[in-house]
């Protein structure tokens, strides 16, 4: 959850305050942020942190997805703006997952719990660059070096991509296959290798970059200067 999140101010049943609760407000209004972990939480991912605070204080409530909601945003129009945006998103999301591990009221039992999902999500974020390197080396060894390959690995890759192609065919969106191939060739190296490495390398960069710059208002015209009195001849 992030910017496209709608919160209830009060509970429907007993009108108990939710996002307006004093406990949530006191935690959210902190100004003693010192550690790098907290700075990534409150300075870069304050919208995600607000959701985490609500889950901590109201574990009996739930989050739900509204499929018919329509939202608008301004997407990055240059690669450098995208780089700045993903740096904030990846770092703030990773640190928020660390906070979610502290929540003791997450659903599930033992290994079958949401904490396991959070841990797996954290691990997958950390190993994304290594997975791209492994996949590239696998393709090179198999198709260029003509080395024998593991049938199990080939089957796993076939299932991963085959299911995606099957979804496109079933939904009748064959044009998506072309864009999927474009994303596979150009997008995966950027989103799975370049952006995660750049984000973790610049974890101490707490700037928002160019994604939230507001154009300055045009300067008001200067008032006309009063006419100087002229001496009589």
TrEMBL record:
<feature type="transmembrane region" description="Helical">
    <location>
        <begin position="65"/>
        <end position="83"/>
    </location>
</feature>
<feature type="transmembrane region" description="Helical">
    <location>
        <begin position="176"/>
        <end position="198"/>
    </location>
</feature>
<dbReference type="GO" id="GO:0016020">
    <property type="term" value="C:membrane"/>
</dbReference>
<keyword id="KW-1133">Transmembrane helix</keyword>
<protein>
    <recommendedName>
        <fullName>chitin synthase</fullName>
        <ecNumber>2.4.1.16</ecNumber>
    </recommendedName>
</protein>
<feature type="transmembrane region" description="Helical">
    <location>
        <begin position="151"/>
        <end position="170"/>
    </location>
</feature>
<dbReference type="InterPro" id="IPR004835">
    <property type="entry name" value="Chitin_synth"/>
</dbReference>
<dbReference type="GO" id="GO:0004100">
    <property type="term" value="F:chitin synthase activity"/>
</dbReference>
<dbReference type="GO" id="GO:0071944">
    <property type="term" value="C:cell periphery"/>
</dbReference>
<dbReference type="Pfam" id="PF03142">
    <property type="entry name" value="Chitin_synth_2"/>
</dbReference>
<keyword id="KW-0812">Transmembrane</keyword>
<feature type="transmembrane region" description="Helical">
    <location>
        <begin position="126"/>
        <end position="144"/>
    </location>
</feature>
<keyword id="KW-0472">Membrane</keyword>
<dbReference type="GO" id="GO:0006031">
    <property type="term" value="P:chitin biosynthetic process"/>
</dbReference>
<dbReference type="InterPro" id="IPR029044">
    <property type="entry name" value="Nucleotide-diphossugar_trans"/>
</dbReference>
<keyword id="KW-0808">Transferase</keyword>
<keyword id="KW-0328">Glycosyltransferase</keyword>
